[in-house]
Amino acid sequence: MSKSRVPWKAVAGGSVGNMVEWYDWFVYSSFAVYFAASFFPEGDDTAKLLNTAAIFAVGFFMRPLGGWLLGRYADRKGRKAALTLTVTLMSASALLIAIAPTYESVGYAGALVLVVARLLQGLSVGGEYAASATYLTEATPPGRRGFASSFQYVSMTAGQLVGLGLQIVLQNTMSAETLASYGWRIPFVVGALGAAVVFYLRRNLLETEAYDEEQRASENARRGTIAELLAHKKEAVLVIALTMGGTVAYYTYTTYLTKYLSNSAGLAKETATLVSFCALFVFMCLQPLAGALSDRIGRRPLLITFGIGSMVGTVPLMTALGGVSGFGGGLVLSLTGLVIVTGYTSINAVVKAELFPTHVRALGVALPYAIANALFGGTAEYVALWFKDSGIESGFFWYVSGCAAVSLVVYLTMRETRDVALSRAEQAAEAAVAERV
């Protein structure tokens, strides 16, 4: 395969399922303002959002388990098999939310159904991230991996855009009362149907050459095991640390942003949704550009730029966003934050995959990343709402900056991963080139 050739079929196959996965994951958060009252008794609106945010966070705490089980599955049974399994779980969870009974009809049993669905989603996404990251990275030749793997966040953001776009359509075709009554169920039905389509598409994916090579070369019973991961514990800790700041910033400027603009800045829900939609569209388009840039200059410069920008810029940006009064100001400030976050999102998948050998790559990406997301990404929205409910909302801004500062130290001290060989074949090719030189 030519160094300059991008395997678009593999990129599309790995990404389209990721889009549906993250559509389902995101619509829970974006439609929470409508269904929060359906599953909890009457009370303070912020308290209801805290309850739904807590259930949102529950899904993140299943990610480590999903990362372990599905990461192990991907290392032992293949990337394709893991990708197919994760989208099946996501379809089931979306369907559960779509049919969940309300508090008025069954009391807290409806909220329990939400919890079960979020547990399934967390299990699925815990494995999806690593299977997708590993597949996209392994399926692409050296020199194009940053570009190709950036489509993971293109697809993730596309899923969010589809969710937001559907929300905009529903907001303009249904009354607020209808949305709160049953309209919020529609996006979850759409998600379940979309996942069924992706299941069919993923069954036709080809396995990566790196995995096939590893499978032929070794029947190592330790492949994809915790014991083998512990042999690479330095890399595992590195994944947790470099993820910490990025995941908090990402969820701050994506899933939490609409609520913040509506609940704190006082923008109409429709305006806040439109700001998020436009900002995320530009953000999506930036991912391949930044990924391609990392193929030329390396991964660390982009990560360092993100770390500095997030550490220094979060407090003034979020403070200014809290005072916006219209669409234009909200869009400019939101875009500024997302441009900074692009330094992390565009390449974080490939960086993590490049840290591990093939026989433990999926687990090595999945479990440490899932732990970091459970501790920092999944709790970001809840922490933000807790600070607001306590009357010290600005404390959350400093929390995000602090997380970015910790990750920045890692970015400054970690090794560059751009030129690492991911398979024995690549190692042999590099050795042959070195001999000729």
TrEMBL record:
Protein name in the entry: Putative proline/betaine transporter
Subcellular localization, as worded in the UniProt entry: Cell membrane
Pfam families in the record: MFS_1
Transmembrane domains' residue ranges: 21-40, 52-70, 82-100, 106-130, 151-170, 182-201, 236-253, 273-290, 302-321, 327-351, 363-384, 396-414
Keywords in alphabetical order: Cell membrane, Membrane, Symport, Transmembrane, Transmembrane helix, Transport
Family: Belongs to the major facilitator superfamily. Metabolite:H+ Symporter (MHS) family (TC 2.A.1.6) family.
Membrane topology (UniProt): Multi-pass membrane protein
GO MF annotations, alphabetized: symporter activity
PROSITE patterns: MFS (PS50850), SUGAR_TRANSPORT_1 (PS00216), SUGAR_TRANSPORT_2 (PS00217)
InterPro entries: H+-coupled_symporters (IPR051084), MFS (IPR011701), MFS_dom (IPR020846), MFS_trans_sf (IPR036259), Sugar_transporter_CS (IPR005829)
A GO term from the CC aspect: plasma membrane
Annotated function: May be a proton symporter involved in the uptake of osmolytes such as proline and glycine betaine.
Domain Major facilitator superfamily (MFS) profile: 10-419
Organism per entry: Nonomuraea maritima
